[in-house]
Amino acid sequence: MQLIRHFLWSFQILFIILHAMNRPRHIIISTLWLACCLTHASNASQTAAETEEMSKEQQMLDSLNRAVANARNDSAESRSRLDRICFFYNHDMNDSLAVHAESDMEFNRRHGFWDNYYETWEHKANDLIFCGKVNTGLRELKQMHDDALERNHQYGLGLAYYGMGNAYISMEHHDEAKEAYLQALTLLQKDQKTSRTMILDLYSYYCDALNEKHEYEQLLDATRQWKKKLEEIEKEKSGKESKEKARKSQNVWYAYYYLACAQAHIGLGNYDEAKTALDSMQNRSSLTTDDGDFIYMSHLYYRAQLMLATGHLKEALELNTERVKMSEAINDVSSPVMIHRQRAEILRRMGKYQEAADTYLKMYQLKDSLDSRQMREQANELATLYRVDELAQEKELASRQAEAARMRFMAAIAFLVGFFLLAFVIYWYVMSRRLRRKNEELTVAHEKAQESSRMKTKFIQNMSHEIRTPLNILGGFAQILSQSDVELPADTRREACETILENSNRITTLINQLLALSDADSRTIIEEKETIGCNELCLRAITASGIEDAPQRHFTFESKMGDEDTLETAARYATDSLCRLLDNAQKFSPEGSTIRFTCEKQGKMMVMAIENETTQPIPASEAERIFEPFVQLDEFHEGVGVGLSVSRNVMRHLGGDIVLDTDYKEGARFVITLPL
């Protein structure tokens, strides 16, 4: 297959050359086409070569594993198994690593190779973290920590803290990450088995955590310790390798070291030292602009940060622009928020406020998108962990049930000896259970009675307030109007009449709500049904609520249903319920806010939604409680708290429902469904 692909590319290249020779005016176009073909062919060949090399390496590891297993050399087999796990880890072969990790850990545990046991465990946990299953990986690492602590295995403890630092930094828990990395450095630097690469890795991660915490003095101290470790390693390697080879092998780590120095000096305001560190980073790391070069991208960002801090805004913007292009080229999803925040600050300092505002908006949109995706991923992962725990509990329960069965069998044998004693014990046990059950029932009944009394008292207080206030107003105006010796201007008399009518309607509405609640609780089925258009039902509710004329509110109605879409329902009851929801939206939305009413068809259901901004968002924990009678989260608003309860009861009698959308964070969003 590979041979055929190369033949096709060769044929295409030959065709391009001949085409250019026959038509000289097309030489430029043909040359570009030829360059694209050669590049594609080169990339394809390189990818195939890398794949083939990786396959050969895996085959060699498999052969080595079989050979040492046949030779029954446990120590060599343990080392070979760890090499295979490292191969899977370094080449992102997650499934293969998950399959082999458990068996390899069991082999090492059985033969007592604890260093390899904990290294395998750490690779397994880190692989879960870098695959996005952070909670699962952290759970593995905590189990690993407890296991190593029980065995007093310092190397295993150090690896556990190292992995926990990776988990916490992924979760943006920088305090915990810093402490975990510091513990790992303390433990692993004392152990001779720790590789130099792991120590340098740890210093890099530890400095990143300090930078995120803005602890720049501590970061500067950490770079001094890091420099000593780099010099120690450089001296160790200088005797085994040529100076040139040793220098090249240290370039990458020196680049990371100078990057940490630059971070510390920029944070402390030592801009000359920061420039020196960035220049040293550039000189030591042989920077290139290849896509995906993390060192170069970090250099661009902090060079731009230095230019911003020193007031060289044009240079800062140019560096940031190059960093943005690189991020877009490699589809970087981890740092766009940080880059756009820097860009917005540069534009703001340059006085380009509109561009800065647009960049800030884009940054917040990116951040919201990333946060939403992380929340979904964590929710899915936690659901998986919950299912795993549930299975473990079921297994433990089955084991306990089996043990209980064995105990019952032994009790049956003992029953032949102590029948009367056992009978008395059983009788006492049964009676105590009954007594306990009765006590629990009485406790629940008592709590319900107390809750009922509390709700009754609250209801009476609310009713007293809601009725007494308009009655006082009615009585006061009635006394004024009934006095014959008082002559009122026409405008004053009209306002008084309007106030009397408004408060009369308020009392009537309150009584109607209570009657509606009683009617909804007493009914199980609403038989009064008619065929009505979906849009017409919504428009009736809008008209009845008067929300279109609501002062200082913006109301919009959007429907994705046609005039031919109809439903058979009790239109009067459905209209009243929608009207109550629209009244609530108007009541609880601040002035100048927007209220949206949408309607669409989903399967065999008509789905409506009422969205409005609120001054006090409804907590997710109260999503069901607000539908209970006489519940008011904000007692300073008018009403007795029966509108939502009545509306939900009616909709459920009609075969639909009303729920609060807890995922909606910009206010309140109620979703109403009715069957078509």
Describe the structure concisely.
This protein is α+β, with helices and mostly antiparallel strands.
Secondary-structure map:
Blueprint: H1 2-22, H2 27-70, H3 74-90, H4 94-111, H5 114-130, H6 134-151, H7 154-170, H8 174-188, H9 196-212, H10 216-238, H11 243-268, H12 271-285, H13 294-309, H14 313-329, H15 336-349, H16 353-415, H17 419-482, H18 490-522, E1 530-533, H19 534-545, E2 554-559, E3 566-569, H20 571-588, E4 594-602, E5 605-612, H21 643-653, E6 657-660, E7 668-675
Parallel strand pairs: 2-4
Antiparallel strand pairs: 1-3, 4-5, 5-7, 6-7
Helix pairs in contact: 1-2, 2-3, 3-4, 3-5, 4-5, 5-6, 5-7, 6-7, 7-8, 7-9, 8-9, 9-10, 9-11, 10-11, 11-12, 11-13, 12-13, 13-14, 13-15, 14-15, 15-16, 17-18, 18-21, 19-20, 20-21
